[in-house]
Amino acid sequence: MRTKDASSLAHPPDTDSGFAGTLKNIQLNDLIQMCCLSASSICMRVTKDNRIGTIFILDGEIVHAACEDIVGEEAFYRILGWQTGSFESLEVGTIPQRTIQKNYHFLVMEAARRVDEKTQFKSDQSLSVPYPSEDTAGNWIRVLIVDDSPVMRKILSSMLTAGNRVKVVGMAGNGKEAISMIDDLRPDLVTLDVNMPVMDGISTIKHIMIKKPCPVVIMSNPGYGSSKTIFNFFELGAVDFINKPTKDQDIFFQQQKIFERIRVAATAEVGNFRIARIPKAKTGNPDGKSVDRACRRLVIVISGPGGHPEQVSLLSGLVPALGDEDGAVVALQSLPPSFSDAFARYLFDRCGIQASPIDQEMSLSAGQCYVGIHGCPLAVRMNDQRPVIAPDAPEKGLVQVDRLLVTAASVFEQRLAVILLSGANTGEQSGLRVVHENGGRIILRMRASGMVAEPLDQVVEAGLADEEVNPADLIKTVLNGFDLKH
Q: Looking at residue 287, what is its pLDDT?
């Protein structure tokens, strides 16, 4: 296949207008996924014999396709059904009306499925059975461990297989080995180290998400300076992060924690992964000065496995919108405590919002974001007529997230909203019940479009969800639920 930029036709040869060249032995679906993963905007014109098809990608989303006499999804599938041909990459000029709504993971996988149905002989149909029946009957989670340390691979394998729910189907010493094994092993989940020889973690997850998307959990013990690297993995589709087991902590406790995180992460619908779309950051007040106003409304945003891109996208718009209405945000993440400062800096660098780790008592000010970590006790209270949040001693009978919700509800009452994103840990739900009792609201991100729905399902089953809304409507829903006149 050949590629060229249509803009090169309108510029002299010495103008910097991109590269022209030839790509051989590349599959069209791989190229499309690379464009989507990099959030590109491009129009592809694909030619096969005397047939021509076009595919429009806008900011990493496939929005339109046309082929002969059809448009939309069916046109996309027809084009990807051509196993050979040529393509040209053209600049996106006039954006056509959107005819495709589904995400690119689903579209590419469905196109591949249709091709397989056409080309596979009946004698090969037995190969399409994904796993042995004894695995599926017992609800086994098939795990591929990727780590350059043979000792760590052995430790993780022993810990994961100590019960009867996880089956380690393979172990790889680097990303290149892992990629070569995925096709044959077809794991339900991959545990991935960060730093490895030959092919590191970042390169590996890119290959996985493009070629064979499946839930990926990062397992590492990064130092303070490298912790922000983990956020790059989340942006590429990693579901969760878990610290590697260490000798100085209770092994049984670590085993239980790792297994539970693996179990939840394995339920992730990676086809629902979306690259965080962050608008251009606002520069703040025109005079450059920060106005310190006590917040009168509070929104607590709780995220868990699979929820990092959702949380970042939401906070970029929610924090400034609430600031205009004397509101503040507490963002709760399921990361190790050492990540709180790195996450606050990441939010500022990525979104341009003011974020502070809750490492001491802090006044809750309008237009500010405060970062907390699951497992670190926090409490909200009044101090000298101002609401404050601070690290707190655990209270008997309450887990940490319940403690935060109970104290926040007692201070803000009907001026409190709780947003639950993918994988949100809601403790024993006693905190959510107190939020309701005090007039606060509990808002869920639409489960069908998220990566990890199981924890949110439990909230719905308990009758504690006030609303379940599309991601694009979360901010409007929050603001409309507050009495902004008082």
A: 38
Q: Spell out the residues 6+ positions from residue 177 whose beta carbon is closer than 8 angstroms to its own.
A: 146, 198
Q: Name the domain boundary from 90, 122, 154.
A: 122
Last residue of a domain, one of 248, 266, 284: 266
- Residue 210 and residue 351 in one domain: no
Which residue is it, tokens 């590697």? 244
What is the token pair recorded at 186?
């077809």
68, 90, 81, 75: which is closest to 8 by C-alpha? 90
State the amino acid at position 383 in one-letter form: N
- Interatomic CA distance for residues 357 and 343, integer angstroms: 8
The boundaries of the domain holding residue 52 are: 2-122
pTM for the model: 0.74
Number of domains in the chain: 3
Any idea what the CATH number is for the domain that residue 348 is in? 3.40.50.180
Q: Which of 376, 380, 307, 285 is nearest to 339 (CA)?
A: 376
The pLDDT tens digits for 96-124 are 889 998 877 778 777 877 776 666 533 34
Residues 147 and 243 in one domain: yes
Q: 365-414 pLDDT, tens per residue?
A: 999 999 998 778 899 999 988 999 998 876 665 568 899 999 999 999 99
Using CA atoms, how far residue 425 sits from 3, 146, 374, 452, 468, in Å, is 47, 27, 8, 11, 17
